[in-house]
Amino acid sequence: MSELQVKSLFASGHTACAGCGQSIAARLVINAAGSNTIIANNTGCLEVFTTKYPESAWRVPWVHSLFENAAAVASGIEAALIFQGKKDKISVIAQAGDGGTADIGMQALSGIWERKHDVLAICYDNEAYENTGIQRSGLTPYGASTTTSPSGAQSFGNPKLKKPMPEIANAHGIAYVATASVGFPQDLQRKVKKALSIKGPKYLQIHVPCPLGWGYPSSLTYQIAKLAVGTGLYPLIEYENGMLIGVRKISSKSVEEYLKPQRRFRHIINNPDELAKIQEIANNNIKKYNLVAEGN
Amino acid sequence: MFGPIIAKPGSSRKNKTGSWRIESKPKFLQSNCIACKLCILICPEGCIEGSQKNTFHCDFDYCKGCGNCASICPKQDIVMVKQE
Q: Rounded to an integer, what is the distance from CA A146 to the centroid of its chain?
């Protein structure tokens, strides 16, 4: 076994699609967290492609129970570690996709935030239920065509805005809330390490492009993730105890650059009204978080 | 099924996912490499290795040929070539 495979806590041979953004993020997360970590995982792509029976890609203790209860399982693991006097040495992560976080796992997640468990909750946000066939979730962006919000003569795709999960997390008064992206891998790993250095509940939402569900060539995962941030549609923000402590500055590209390579936004490109609505979402983010660097 | 199933850590390595590659594969030119390790960070398979400049390469047993290493390389020192 080579040096790299000894160091990586996330083994090769998992069965994610080529270019899967979630597999990039999962490996970055666990390698930043280190071997003294226990993971509870909701149902979703990540659970399915890393644990194809009878194999596992994980080299840390990893538990899957149900779609909705990774946060509840993690709170039990944390309680057991406290009882054993090991909590200071071992980190607990509860991770899920966007459906498992913002819709199905919401009540258990709200519970660990409210009860102030020392758990890092991670949302791998690929913006739909990709595992079951690309149904829209609470984190699907405005205008995206999914199998349950298809674009057509009567519809411009998903009619709702993304659920504001970072704000919902902050409303619980938790210690650390941040967004990250596979387009900025070093920033992502820094945020994982920082989150785990803070005691109490933490929430990290990671933008993970999905070649299959979004409809783009697998080689573009990195570029598309960068463009989501660069256009202002996915602002990278960081809060400590409810205070905004950092944002990644951008040079504000047109949203068209981000939307154009993706099949899920194909119907938007030739529709100036809809395109303007999505540009307005980006503009609102830019204004709200003061994203544009001076001199641009 | 009434109990937990426990799998061996890292046992997914049994799946040689390199057989999934159909169109292209990365070629590490090893000439302008600055050892920034961004290719290692972005590889979804975690199958790129290297430490010093111009030593980086990937394990074709696992590479699915997605091409994100070539996309992230700031020196264009990784190119995608036709899979034979």
A: 18
| Cis status of the peptide bond prior to A54, with omega within 30 of 0 | yes
Q: Distance between CA A129 and CA A8 in Å, rounded?
A: 28
The per-residue pLDDT for range B23-61, each reduced to its tens digit, is 999 999 999 999 999 999 999 999 999 999 999 999 999
CATH code, residues B31-82: 3.30.70.20
CATH code of residue A203: 3.40.50.970
DSSP B12: G
**Which among B14, B15, B46 has CB closest to A27?**
B46
Tell whether ipTM is more than 0.90: yes
Residues A202 and A199: their CA atoms lie apart, in Å, by: 8
d(CA A178, CA A166): 7
Q: Does B10 touch chain A (CB under 8 A)?
A: yes
Angle between helices A185-197 and A21-33 (to 10 degrees): 40
CB pairs under 8 A between A and B: 121
At B27, which helix (H) or strand (E)? Answer: strand B24-28
